[in-house]
Design a protein that fits this description.
By secondary structure, the chain is α/β, with parallel strands linked by helices. The chain has helices at residues 3-22, 31-45, 50-59, 63-71, 82-96, 113-124, 140-148, 156-165, 223-236; strands spanning 102-107, 131-137, 150-152, 176-179, 182-185, 193-197, 209-214, 237-245, 260-264, 269-272. The mean pLDDT is 95.
């Protein structure tokens, strides 16, 4: 048995242990992504083997939060992929206007940039006052950061450009207050957002939504887990509800594909039709 084969066994044991002891299930994440993240943890924590990492995470509960921070991908930005938001304005907003009250789920919201982007867009379209956005993530640490609504000031120039490309209608700086090196987003943007922990892998549907954004999450799951999450998203959408995926994700080959129509193929926006 070579070193890589032994490492694979250790990783399987680690993931099984975390699932059975803590209930967090990483067993069906994409193997290449999992191995890359675990090797990075070993380097950062100066651990020699995956078995040493297993001992640390199972016997030191305080380390679990740090482990989850390492394992969950929190790469995001405000108005990321501006064309998605521009298309959302033009094709989804008119559909949402037909509802007296609008429920939207941002699944895997990370540190919240996507949630605030959506809140700003809905505000500018005069819909935010009759919306409730549910922002969920597996990681409680990033949820706390999202709820705070504080982002590095150095990113605001980049975010302003993306906001304008996404069809922004005002001065982006009106939505935040500059304080030292941070931008603190306006309190009114949080008024209709519910931040809550939710695990896409093992938690169930918790409401019926008019729109769900689950962008750049599924790419980290293996095929069977993608199918499971697609079923969860389908079960959570109302008839004629809208599903938004990341630009590297699609409904192709999913069991649910036939129950949707493409609203905007390039932007990965779909409408549930049955």
């Amino acid at each position: 048995m070579n070193k890589n084969e032994l490492e694979d066994i250790e990783i399987r044991l680690l993931l099984e242990g975390i699932f059975h002891y803590y209930g967090f299930d990483f067993r069906r994440y994409a193997p290449v992504a999992i191995k890359r993240r675990i090797r990075n943890i070993l380097y950062l924590e100066q651990l020699a083997t995956v078995s040493a990492l297993q001992e640390k995470v199972l016997h030191d509960r305080t380390f679990l939060e740090q482990f989850l921070n390492y394992m969950t991908v929190n790469v995001t930005a405000m108005f990321r992929d501006p064309q998605f938001y521009l298309t959302f304005r033009h094709k989804v907003i008119p559909l949402l206007r037909t509802y007296p009250f609008i429920r939207i789920w941002c699944a895997g919201c990370s540190t919240g940039e996507e949630v605030y982007s959506l809140a700003i867009l809905l505000y500018e379209e005069n819909l935010y006052h009759r919306c409730r956005i549910y922002a969920t993530d597996i990681n409680e640490t990033v949820l706390r950061n999202a709820q705070a609504g504080i982002f590095p000031m150095r990113l605001m120039q980049e975010y302003t450009q993306s906001y304008l490309q996404a069809g922004g209608k005002q001065s982006f700086s009106e939505y935040y207050t500059a304080a030292y090196d941070n931008a603190i987003f306006r309190a009114f943007l949080k008024q209709n957002i519910v931040f809550s922990q939710h695990n896409l892998i093992c938690d169930r549907s918790f409401n019926e939504f008019n729109a769900i954004l689950c962008r750049n999450v599924l790419i980290y799951f293996n095929q069977s887990l993608q199918q499971q999450v697609h079923q969860l998203l389908y079960d959570s959408l109302c008839l004629f509800g809208i599903l938004g995926l990341g630009n590297q994700e699609s409904l192709n080959l999913s069991h649910q594909e036939r129950y949707y129509k493409q609203l905007a193929g390039r932007e990965r926006l779909y409408q549930k039709i049955s």
